[in-house]
Amino acid sequence: MHYNFGEKIRAVRERRSLTLREVAEKAGVSESLVSQIERNRVSPAIDTLLALADALDLDLEYLFSDYRRDRSVRIMRRDERTTFTRPGVLYERLAHLEKQGQEGIEAYAITLETGAKTGGREYGHPGWELGVVQEGNAELTVGNQTYELSPGDSASFMADAPHVLSNPGNELLRVFWIITPPKGEIGN
After folding, report:
1. Residue range 78-106: average pLDDT?
2. What is the residue-wise DSSP string for 22-46?
3. Geometric angle at alpha carbon 133, from 107 and 79, rounded to 5°
4. Looking at the whole model, is its pTM more than 0.90?
5. How far apart are CA 104 and CA 163, in angstroms?
6. From the centroid of its chain, how far is CA 124?
7. For position 17, what pLDDT does the model report?
8. In terms of CB atoms within 10 Å, which of 110, 121, 122, 174 comes out highest?
């Protein structure tokens, strides 16, 4: 990747009413080199870039503010979602982002039939969970506490305690659920 500093360096130099020669002298480089850098004809060595930043009293953060702005975005179309089921529960994976050796995140649309539940009373797992009830009423038990959740309610908690999400109502329960770090198929 080729990163262009030239436009920013020229804009600051002109805003400060400095000539190419004045900046070159302050930075200890040739006027020709400064001109080539400003026109993006050459990419400066790091020590030259630092000298120019000092000569212009430029913040390095400003110089690099556009660097790596483009990020990869993963789009998952509705018909591409991975799904899996447990008795009375449908999981639709909306996202699973994980980078080698780093934290990640996964998200699910979960539908629970009347009386169905997900999670376990025996153990939790490392990380955090956050859920939002979209339709129906939920009962969330984390450790020894049970919470009733209605549409629009959300809950977040450290997932190291045993936790169970259940549908005590007489209609479908739909929730949006996020887990970090990812653990694969939830409900395991």
Report:
1. 87
2. HHHHHHTS-HHHHHHHHTTSSPPPH
3. 45
4. no
5. 21
6. 24
7. 94
8. 110
